[in-house]
Amino acid sequence: MSSTQTTTLAESQTPGSLSVRTSTVPLIPTGALDKYEYVDLTSVLGREYPNVQLSDLLNAENADELIRELAIIVSQRNVAFFRNQDITVEQQKLLGNKLGILSGRPKESGLHIHPTTQPSPELGLEISVITSLKDKKKEWENELDISQFASREWHSDITFEPVPSDFAILKIHTLPENGGDTVWASGYEAYDRLSPPFAKYLEGLSALHDAKKFKIYVEATGNTFQEGPRGNPENVGDTLQAIHPVIRTNPVTGWKAVFVNKNFTKRILGITKDESDITLDYLHRLITENHDLQVRFKWRKNDVAIWANSASLHNVTRDYDAHREGNRVVSIGERPYFDSSSKSRREALGLKKRIEF
């Protein structure tokens, strides 16, 4: 790796430097959203608010208090769901910005512009259109290179950026009669399933994340590539590579999470390729083969999901042929870091450990 990338990695683990939060003290919930009905969908992750309109939260007199609380809840529960929302595109952008700002993101960060996003007078560059109409095969030179395992698409959003996402908001407005569910997984719970010696080993490692497939896609379609800045001054150029810690501390909760994914994480640095491949395969299997650290959401028209990219992964279920489309806002957070004094989710909540030593 280049000396520039090495320096960036060192800086990413130094609180107070560019694109790192001024405070890494976890946020304390106030209970501001407790008056609203909710259902925790599993014991590990996922919360649904069946009767809350996000537009009402934005328009409330204490909007900042409510949205700060929402940022904490999403960070703790990984993902929250809201049914049949009337939130507009501009309100969606506003909410995405507020979630990041009110939870303490660096001042340099804003909303992400995806490298493949095309200019739109209606939506602007800060909305990513998530659509089944996109020709996914253009990301590969040969369709025989496309894995037939659905697990290939597990990912956290835009981890190929030096400063990746903290929160994402997706509103699905067009969907098939059935199919197209999305599954989320908890990076916190994945960490809690590591033995202490193995966790300690991983905490000292960093990994390369890469998304050159997006450059290939843009060149194949003749579209415009967004050179940036893409939501942060550090997210520029067409390299689409970044180095991040394998185990990350979510600054909102102070909890440790596994921070690798099948889609973008290519190699663990500082060990042999064989060791990297074996380690990544184990971590991917830990996430994809444990349905008890996952939650599955069946979309209905105009539903909204908000998730914490700093501690969760997700994967769409491509079991449909009909049109499926929605608008996504991705907020940029801080440069990922690992804090050795941070705790696991189970430790922080006083829950029984998965593995006793």
From TrEMBL:
Region (Disordered): 1-21
A Pfam family this chain is assigned to: TauD
GO molecular function terms listed in the Swiss-Prot or TrEMBL record: 2-oxoglutarate-dependent dioxygenase activity; metal ion binding
Keyword Oxidoreductase (UniProt): yes
Domain TauD/TfdA-like, residue spans: 40-328
Keywords: Dioxygenase, Iron, Metal-binding, Oxidoreductase
Keyword field contains Oxidoreductase: yes
GO cellular component, one term: cytoplasm
InterPro entries xrefs: AtsK-like, TauD-like_sf, TauD/TfdA-like
Membership in a protein family: Belongs to the TfdA dioxygenase family.
Protein name in the entry: Taurine catabolism dioxygenase
Source organism of the structure: Laetiporus sulphureus 93-53
